[in-house]
Specification:
By secondary structure, this protein is α/β, with parallel strands linked by helices. The chain contains eleven helices and ten strands. The relative contact order is 0.17. Bound molecules: S-adenosylmethionine, 6-(5-methyl-2-OXO-imidazolidin-4-yl)-hexanoic acid and iron/sulfur cluster (SF4).
Length: about 325
């Protein structure tokens, strides 16, 4: 087994980016097979539980109050709506349900309401994930007690490029939240966005930050910027597919045991491009017709692709007995039609 390292230098990472494409993909696929079934994919469904009017100024985001997007803002969703969405996600075959809120950070009062949501979703035997912004240490402890499985908090980009993207919270703020989440024993989901105008060295530097955390995040989302009209990032030059696939492959090589998540931006990708991402070591996706506020591929198209590639869907950790994976892809495809 390749050993897990957290002492990667930028020179080493840049050298991986510079490899001939076929050599890079071969290396990534070889390491992928040491730790994972190469034909399995984990799927999570997202729900925005509190949409818009966010005080942060993230330059890519439809939900920032600083950006003039046409998004309708909404209050925290009631528990019954969260439950019905989670049931639908479970029926459609998701193993994890991720609830996102457009907050800088949750208040303790908000957190108690979200904890009720975590409990009802967990009762459906779905894994739970939250993304609510920054968390204090006591808040992460409270979430752990409530049984939360994963917390998503992205570094978003390199420390060097960060100031071009966000000014209302620091890189160190983000690292502190990750330390609190890890310290409470919650699984960490952390990655970033590419295609925001950063260069290859920034992509290497972002992956270095993630790979050199004391423990690698269990889940590493690699988002391709979704260009939202009214945000400062709208109209950015689009990132080439080859550069995107290289980033996935390098993430796989640096963090061999982590799920690398092919995240936002899939509506812009062909089936062949997504297949190449899976070959490069991506082994999880967001599944469902919507991400938080923007479109995602239709569920039935995703199921058809998974089936055509001969892949199977991973089960939730405590839901192994219910439906064998192979049957599940067929069942989900039927449900989606
Ligand atoms: N408000 C919380 C926060 O920022 O920590 C949680 C929700 S936020 C929408 C979660 C992540 O989604 C962001 O950190 C960012 O990486 C990603 N994201 C948001 N808008 C995006 C876009 N337009 N394209 C790609 N990724 C995006
Ligand atoms: C992540 O890295 N990507 C997801 C999830 N974590 C929360 C969100 C993508 C959001 C894309 C833009 C939107 O739909 O608002
Ligand atoms: Fe707010 Fe999160 Fe969007 Fe930033 S990414 S503006 S913190 S919802």
């Amino acid at each position: 087994m390749t050993i897990l390292r957290n002492d990667w230098s930028l020179t080493e990472i840049n050298a991986l980016f510079e490899l001939p494409f076929n050599d890079l993909l071969f290396k990534a696929q070889t390491i992928h097979r040491e730790y994972f079934d190469p034909n399995a994919v984990q799927i999570s469904t997202l729900l925005s539980i509190k949409t818009g009017a966010c005080p942060e100024d993230c330059g890519y985001c439809s939900q920032s109050s600083k950006n003039d997007t046409s998004l309708e803002k909404e209050k925290l969703l009631p528990l019954d709506q969260v439950l019905s969405n989670a049931k639908k996600a479970k029926e459609a075959g998701a193993s994890r349900f991720c609830m996102g809120a457009a907050w800088r950070n949750p208040t303790d009062k908000n957190l108690e309401k979200v904890i009720e949501m975590v409990k009802v979703v967990k009762d459906l035997k779905l894994e739970t994930c939250l993304t609510l912004g920054m968390l204090t240490e006591p808040q992460t402890k409270r979430l752990k007690e409530a049984g939360l499985d994963y917390y998503n908090h992205n570094l978003d980009t390199s420390p060097e490029f960060y100031g071009n993207v966000i000014t209302t919270r620091t890189y160190q703020d983000r690292l502190n939240t990750l330390t609190n989440v890890r310290g409470a024993g919650i699984n960490v989901c952390s990655g970033g966005i590419i295609g925001m105008g950063e260069n290859e060295n920034d992509r290497a530097s972002m992956l270095q930050q993630l790979a050199n955390l004391e423990k690698h995040p269990e889940s590493v989302p690699i988002n391709l910027l979704v260009q939202v009209k009214g945000t400062p990032m709208y109209g950015q030059d689009k990132l080439g597919g080859i550069d995107f696939v290289r980033t996935i492959a390098v993430a796989r090589l640096l963090m061999p045991k982590s799920h690398v998540r092919l995240s936002a931006g899939r509506t812009e990708m062909s089936d062949e491009m997504q297949a190449l991402c899976f070959f490069a070591g991506a082994n999880s996706i967001f599944y469902g017709d919507k991400l938080l506020t923007t479109d995602n591929p239709e569920s039935n198209d995703d199921m058809a692709l998974i089936k055509r590639l001969g892949m199977k869907v991973e089960q939730a950790a405590d839901d192994q007995e219910q439906h064998p994976c192979s049957l599940k892809v067929d069942k989900m495809q039927d449900a989606a039609h």
